[in-house]
Amino acid sequence: MNLFTSSILVTLFMLTLPIMMANTSMYINKLYPRYVKTTISYAFMISLIPTMMFLHLGQDTMISNWHWITIQTMKLSLSFKFDYFSMIFVPVALFVTWSIMEFSIWYMHSDPYINRFFKYLLLFLITMMILVTANNMFQLFIGWEGVGIMSFLLIGWWYGRTDANTAALQAILYNRIGDVGFIMAMAWFLTNLNTWDLQQIFMANHENLNIPLIGLLLAATGKSAQFGLHPWLPSAMEGPTPVSALLHSSTMVVAGVFLLIRFHPLMEHNKTLQTITLCLGAITTLFTAVCALTQNDIKKIVAFSTSSQLGLMIVTIGINQPYLAFLHICTHAFFKAMLFMCSGSIIHSLNDEQDIRKMGGLFKALPFTTTSLIVGSLALTGMPFLTGFYSKDLIIETANTSYTNAWALLMTLVATSMTAAYSTRIMFLALLGQPRFSPIITINENDPHLINSIKRLLFGSIFAGFLISYNITPTTTPQMTMPHYLKMMALIVTILGFILALELNLMMQNLKFKYPSGLFKFSNMLGYFPTIIHRLMPKTNLLMGQKSASTLLDMTWMEKILPKSISHFQMKSSTAVSNQKGLIKLYFMSFMLTLTLSLLTLSFHG
Amino acid sequence: MLKIIIPTMMLIPLTWLSKPSMIWINTTAYSMLISLIGLTYLNQFTDNNLNFSLLFFTDSLSAPLLMLTTWLLPLMLMASQHHLSKETLTRKKLYITMLVTLQLLLIMTFTATELIMFYILFEATLMPTLIIITRWGNQTERLNAGLYFLFYTLVGSLPLLIALLWLQNNLGTLNLLVIQYWTQPLLSSWSNTLLWLACMMAFMVKMPLYGLHLWLPKAHVEAPIAGSMVLAAVLLKLGGYGMMRITILLNPLTDFMAYPFMMLSLWGMIMTSSICLRQTDLKSLIAYSSVSHMALVIVAVLIQSPWSYMGATALMIAHGLTSSMLFCLANSNYERIHSRTMILARGLQTLLPLMAAWWLLASLTNLALPPTINLVGELFVVMASFSWSNITIILMGINITITALYSLYMLITTQRGKYTHHIKNIKPSFTRENSLMILHLLPLLLLSLNPKVILGPIY
């Protein structure tokens, strides 16, 4: 027994303190956001202790704390798994969240409910921690659903706006479809393996794991916004920018990828599922990159680039390299959170203007934000020796040298090149050139909360990749030798993307396209996906609910067949059978006649 | 057993002899004390039953339901105060007396040892409910609703009486503790099929099974708040309880007879959920969501595996508390807006933030957020049906998705968005209402910590 478990539990416990404090007078205090921020920074520091120990010793730990329930032969208890994945992820997530919290103090300072906002962010972080450290599927599910519900609350933060509510509902709907997959996997494990504990699941030797793996893939598709269930991610940009930075860059959306990484021991021998995963990832990464190319909303572009990177992670899992995918999760967190925060800074400075066509020339007005944005974009494209390079380059190299589906590989390469293209577009339109925003604007980025938070992530975007990949031992042997053209492939396609985008943007300034081409429309309209899926499907469903379920079956058939018809037939038959026809006059007449007759006979009898 | 029954009976003189200002407080406090007695029965330390007398017993299946019944009476009393504030004193007392009578009958129903006694009490609960619905409902449609309620349940349950008489003749006893040892396997024949139907239909109607559920939305919508609460929370559970008790007589025929009802439930739960998506009437939405949740219980009881029984019991308790809470919330809206139409009560979060928190929690429990007992129940039912047939996961999945959708649709429509102008001068939420919500939520949360008390006898 050493400090390992106690220090990690202290980290987790510390995070709950501000939530508990929410009942005290501290919550009414204006300093509550700072308490939260400081708590997270302390939690980050403390979490470094077990991570260092893990890096030094490399020991997996599993602790089982509180026995919840035993159902027949299945024991469910509160247990945590501190292995490679959770031990690296926890400090990364805490570091990123720390910066985002500080950023939110600046971004949300005028919100009357800023304390509640911080509480929600923190609750979200806690559920995410539960998710990554869970050792059984039930606990994982608690984190999984908790993340979904907190995202509902955070995306719908400005609840007066219809768009925000729609986006929140959309997020829940798509996540819920994924949850069905998760529940299916749980059901399968329960019926076939009789356990939800991760170790026992991995030990099991089962012939055909297709059903649970498809369930898990569906879950990951929902949570990580893979093709088919992707529209919620860009819609979720309706939430406040810190929410986008936290949820949609580094934590919630990677939960799906994380789940697949967790269950990778089941997947590594299943070729069918790997191919499906690979193709799904490739389609996602290409499709969302295409969509990002023509968007004008700065947050939407960043959101689509997130989606594209998630696709890349799924591709990595498809080529059987979960550790690389995990490395990409960690490195991606830094620069993507920073990109969101930079766009938040720009949006705030330009009075909530999100359209990149109305920006331009910001490098003079916002020098620090510009620097960070450029570094972040370069890191995103995989510029050598920035953070993104260490994972992205390796992924592309490994994909290139593996015996994989050439089509999927090609898609991924095209998407990589497009990453450079849309990054260029943001830089070109928002930062360079002449200002196109309205002149009366108070641009100010000199707030220590803003500067410090972005600065911290800026250092992260430059050095974190090196630090992480230097310190963790490679678990799968990477391919060390390859031809030059394969080695340079990632770099070449990226540079190609840069040059093409630069040329196109320059051309766009001088020339005006007459009519948008079909391809442009496809990309700008997000592949017509929302139009088709968000119009047709709900309309059909709601119409079916109304017409067939409610009106036809419930109100007509069932009511007619049982109560109405019974009462109707009763009425009819009773009127038909009875000889009382309501002829009162006649009845009284006959009554009177009988009466008089009988009286007469009686009186004359005597 | 008398230590619950006699205090409950004494609630009636307490009501009639209390000072006019004290009738609500006295009865609420007293009934709350009674519910504390029931708490001890939750601790079923052995697998055997707790036999109180020849007539009454309780085991881990009926104890949670008994607890739910006793817990609900103070909540009903708290919820109805505003509804009755304009009535005369005698009528108030009469109303409380009706609720107390209903509780008394329900307690005895859940603990009855003899099936015939169970049957009589089961039918007797109809009377106070009918009076509550038809006398204190808000609209004239209440008479129609009462008629539907009475006829559906009576038509369903009369064959049960005949079946029970026949069984008594055959087995020589209807004692629940004895028949599980004496019962003969029911082989497949036409008369046995009829016997199966006679035994089950009474409870199927009560649950209600999709197709026979028409009385439920009507009764729920027209009943006063206490009526809706007790209907959703306890009276529907009588069906589930009865089914679980009587299936021991009906094996192995259930395996074969279950199919049509299973199909109907699986289909019906999706249908009723989709109806929920299109409801404009808040109470009707909650009522239909009850039908959809109860369909899960029917599926679970018909599958008859240990996991499904555990799921069914947990889901019954969880749904009892959740739907009752939702009805209370709907009622607190109704008392302010004077309409059940959801679109008239938009954006309430701005005006009543604490109420919005209760709405949020109630919706989340309704969509079975882990680790609430609603999830425990639903998850177990899904597991059981998955192992029964893998394909059912598709239907269950659709239902899970739609359930989440309509719960949040309800939340968003009533709480989010811009508030309308006619609700600007509504009353703030009372402490009474807030504590009512807490008293619903507290058991839900506490039971999540230790769900095994409500997992039934097979656990």
Give a description of the structure.
- The complex is a heterodimer of chains A (606) and B (459).
- Chain A is built from 25 helices and two strands.
- Chain A has 606 residues and is mainly alpha-helical.
- Chain A has one domain.
- In chain A, helix 15 (322-349) runs antiparallel to helix 17 (367-381), helix 15 packs across helix 18 (387-401) and helix 17 packs parallel to helix 20.
- Chain A is elongated.
- Chain A starts with a helix and ends with a helix.
- The model of chain A has no long low-confidence stretch (mean pLDDT 89).
- Chain B has one domain (1-42, 54-454).
- Chain B has 19 helices and two strands.
- Chain B is globular and about 65 Å long.
- The chains are: A mainly alpha (606), B mainly alpha (459).
- Chains A and B meet through helix 5, helix 6 and helix 24 of A and helix 7, helix 12, helix 14, helix 17 and helix 18 of B.
- Chain B: Keywords: Electron transport, Membrane, Mitochondrion, NAD, Respiratory chain, Translocase, Transmembrane, Transmembrane helix, Transport, Ubiquinone.
- Chain B: Residues 1-109 form the NADH:ubiquinone oxidoreductase chain 4 N-terminal domain.
